[in-house]
């Protein structure tokens, strides 16, 4: 059975480092045997169809292929269409009322528990807030991610150590749901 997935690449094409042209990303995905490939933006979002049913194995194969092609490591997460739609639907914040730059989802390679973030005094960051979801974290940052003190605190090593994590703004979250809809 063929499943539609999104590949979320972490930390590429930022400030000229780890350059991965989207045309070459599409080629890599094709060489891995995937079909229906499309990329979105230059920041490492790709949609593809695959007969594979193991997201972690698909991500590992993509990471290895990117390393062979470009000579550097790129952390990747692969999530199926159903998961992406469920994350969007479960958003604890009023996404329809917010600008895309105000709401973000950080996708994790595995589930995280509240203990990881227990040292953060939530009230100290208001009106910014975060909530944990299924292998993700929702962040409301009314002034945007670049000015967010909470985002800065959440990214500290003690909070993300040992995790593969990558963040997308709500516009990208919604577009990936749209692109992976069968």
Automatic annotation (TrEMBL):
InterPro entries, per database record: DUF1697
Xref: PANTHER family: BLL4334 PROTEIN, DUF1697 DOMAIN-CONTAINING PROTEIN
Protein name (record): DUF1697 domain-containing protein
SUPFAM superfamilies, sorted: SP0830-like (SSF160379)
Pfam families assigned: DUF1697 (PF08002)
């Amino acid at each position: 059975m063929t499943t539609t997935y999104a590949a979320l690449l972490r930390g590429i094409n930022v400030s000229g480092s780890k350059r991965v042209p989207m045309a070459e990303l599409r080629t890599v995905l094709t060489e891995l045997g995937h079909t229906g490939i499309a990329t979105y933006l230059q920041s490492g979002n790709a949609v593809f169809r695959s007969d594979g049913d193991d997201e972690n194995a698909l991500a590992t194969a993509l990471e290895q292929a990117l390393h062979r092609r470009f000579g550097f490591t790129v952390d990747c997460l692969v999530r199926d269409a159903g998961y992406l739609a469920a994350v969007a639907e479960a958003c604890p914040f009023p996404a329809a009322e917010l600008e895309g730059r105000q709401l973000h989802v950080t996708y994790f390679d595995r589930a995280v528990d509240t203990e990881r973030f227990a040292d953060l005094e939530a009230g100290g960051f208001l009106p910014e807030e975060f909530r944990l979801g299924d292998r993700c974290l929702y962040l409301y940052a009314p002034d945007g991610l670049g000015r967010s003190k909470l985002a800065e605190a959440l990214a500290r090593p003690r909070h993300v150590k040992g995790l593969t994590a990558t963040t997308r703004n709500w516009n990208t979250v919604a577009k990936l749901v749209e692109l992976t809809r069968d």
